[in-house]
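Weekly structure sync, notes
Attendees: PL, DS, HV (note-taker this week)

Item 1: gluconokinase
DS walked through the input record. Source organism listed as Corynebacterium jeikeium. Sequence as pasted into the shared doc:
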Amino acid sequence: MSSQETPATLHVVVMGVSGSGKTTLARAFAEKTGWQLQEADDLHPEGALEILQDGKLPPEEGRRTWLRIVRDWIADEAAQGNNTVTACTALRIDHREILNDAGENATVFYVHLYGTEDVLAERMKNRVGDADMPRELLTAQLEDLQRLTPGEKGIQLDVSRTPEQLLDDALNAAMFAKKAYAR
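Item 1 (cont.): predicted structure, written out as tokens:
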């Protein structure tokens, strides 16, 4: 590789519905690795968070616009040779396909946090420091969710495990993916 070439990079997207612990795990992951961190909710176009706080999903074109903004952030970081971690719902396969298109030197790897609706609702109720999201949003997101397919790069982790176990598994899977895909 010449000094002009950008090295291959890995971009971990911690995905799942509200209450799954995406932000908590993404922050811990970034702290442990020193990778660039992005909370995808911070990139929502104006008005989208208000729609979510009303318990609804934004219109599909609005979600696609938002995901393109997230993808472009990943692509910019990849162009600089930075690995990243992002907390992002990435609920559907077509949404993840947008994120996957972050550039030739960018491999996107998903850590899907999942749990039962009751467990997730309880976690949402006990959130500290984040904007309250209504139970209706969780229901809408679960209806929209498409789990990772065997062809997608990623791992699925049950949120009933401890934060430390989730972090260990996410780190191990990401480091394996980095060796396998981002050489």
